[in-house]
UniProtKB/TrEMBL annotation:
<feature type="transmembrane region" description="Helical">
    <location>
        <begin position="57"/>
        <end position="80"/>
    </location>
</feature>
<dbReference type="InterPro" id="IPR000725">
    <property type="entry name" value="Olfact_rcpt"/>
</dbReference>
<keyword id="KW-0552">Olfaction</keyword>
<feature type="transmembrane region" description="Helical">
    <location>
        <begin position="204"/>
        <end position="223"/>
    </location>
</feature>
<keyword id="KW-0716">Sensory transduction</keyword>
<keyword id="KW-1003">Cell membrane</keyword>
<dbReference type="GO" id="GO:0004984">
    <property type="term" value="F:olfactory receptor activity"/>
</dbReference>
<comment type="similarity">
    <text>Belongs to the G-protein coupled receptor 1 family.</text>
</comment>
<keyword id="KW-1133">Transmembrane helix</keyword>
<keyword id="KW-0472">Membrane</keyword>
<feature type="transmembrane region" description="Helical">
    <location>
        <begin position="100"/>
        <end position="118"/>
    </location>
</feature>
<keyword id="KW-0297">G-protein coupled receptor</keyword>
<dbReference type="GO" id="GO:0005886">
    <property type="term" value="C:plasma membrane"/>
</dbReference>
<dbReference type="InterPro" id="IPR000276">
    <property type="entry name" value="GPCR_Rhodpsn"/>
</dbReference>
<protein>
    <recommendedName>
        <fullName>Olfactory receptor</fullName>
    </recommendedName>
</protein>
<feature type="transmembrane region" description="Helical">
    <location>
        <begin position="138"/>
        <end position="160"/>
    </location>
</feature>
<keyword id="KW-0807">Transducer</keyword>
Length: 304
């Protein structure tokens, strides 16, 4: 496809062109990115090394934290480096790679969140069968399915981008490559491509969000037969999951479920779900989860 295009590289506009603001962006997002890697690394290592965190819920949480770190890495480093450069260029192939990576790890987060909701449903609604249903083999298969599903989703996004011819201009009004900003540069009517993007990314985000909402409604309904202590613990866990779901799916649905149009807040919304959410997820899970906090305290205090 590159041979059919007169454009072999793109220029990323970034969050701003103001030199002073770019210095602030460099400092702020460098700190946020390093904190994201640190927090998610701590969660993954703590779960892997702590015997008390051997349940399926924490098994899935470790993969969510890993996906968070990778998802942030797809966009944050380039944003940080570009804040120090005048010409923010990215080659055609690098742009395609970034599109694939963003949707691959973003899709992984979606599918892992669905798996985590299924785990909570089985734990609360079918407690006597929980260990049988959520065996180690089943948990591993669910994670593999999440990776495969996200790979299929991101491959579809790349296929759509490959249909777009580029003949100039080549300035992407964004801080990373994504399908929507690229469609604005295409030398063709992108109505059908946009419809396919909405049908793919928009449908995956919306239907997953609806499925998660239904699962939480079913869980809450089933809690009426539990003891007060059981309800309290289940509500605490489900509330944590639901907060993460809202933080991720709200911006994602806003970006990917509408006709091809641009709003001034698009880039800030993208910053929130691509950089902010991976930072907040481990904090939400650790601050609201006594087991994770205790395991982390015991493990790292002993190591130090």
């Amino acid at each position: 496809m590159i041979m059919n295009n007169s454009v072999t590289e793109f220029i990323l506009f970034g969050l701003t062109q103001d030199a002073e603001k770019q210095k602030v962006i460099f400092g702020v997002f460098l700190i946020l990115y390093l904190l994201t890697l640190l927090w998610n690394f701590l969660v993954v290592v703590t779960i892997k090394l702590s015997v008390s965190l051997g349940s399926p819920m924490y098994f899935f949480l470790s993969y969510l934290s890993f996906a968070d770190a990778c998802f942030s890495t797809t966009t944050a480093p380039r944003l940080i480096v570009d804040a120090l450069t005048q010409k923010k260029t990215i080659s055609y192939n690098e742009c395609l790679t970034q599109v694939f990576a963003v949707h691959f790890f973003g899709g992984t987060e979606i599918f892992v969140l669905i798996v985590m909701a299924f785990d909570r449903y089985v734990a609360i609604c079918k407690p006597l069968q929980y260990t049988t249903i959520m065996s180690q083999r089943v948990c591993s298969m669910l994670v593999i399915l999440a990776w495969v599903g996200s790979c299929v989703h991101s491959t579809a996004q790349i296929f759509l981008v490959l249909q777009l011819p580029f003949c100039g201009p080549n300035v992407i009004d964004h801080y990373f490559c994504d399908v929507e900003p690229l469609m604005q540069l295409a030398c063709m009517d992108t109505f059908v491509i946009n419809w396919l993007v909405v049908s793919n990314s928009g449908t995956v985000s919306t239907m997953s969000f609806i499925a998660l909402l239904i699962s939480y409604v079913v869980i809450l309904y089933s809690l009426r037969n539990h003891s007060a202590e059981g309800r309290r613990k289940a509500l605490s866990t489900c509330t944590t999951h639901f907060i993460v779901v809202l933080l991720f799916f709200g911006p994602s649905i806003f970006i990917y479920t509408r006709p091809q149009t641009t709003f001034s807040v698009d880039k800030m919304v993208s910053v929130f779900y691509a950089i902010g959410t991976p930072l907040l997820n481990p904090l939400i899970y650790t601050l609201r989860n006594a087991e994770v906090k205790n395991a982390m305290r015991k493990l790292w205090c002993r190591k130090i």
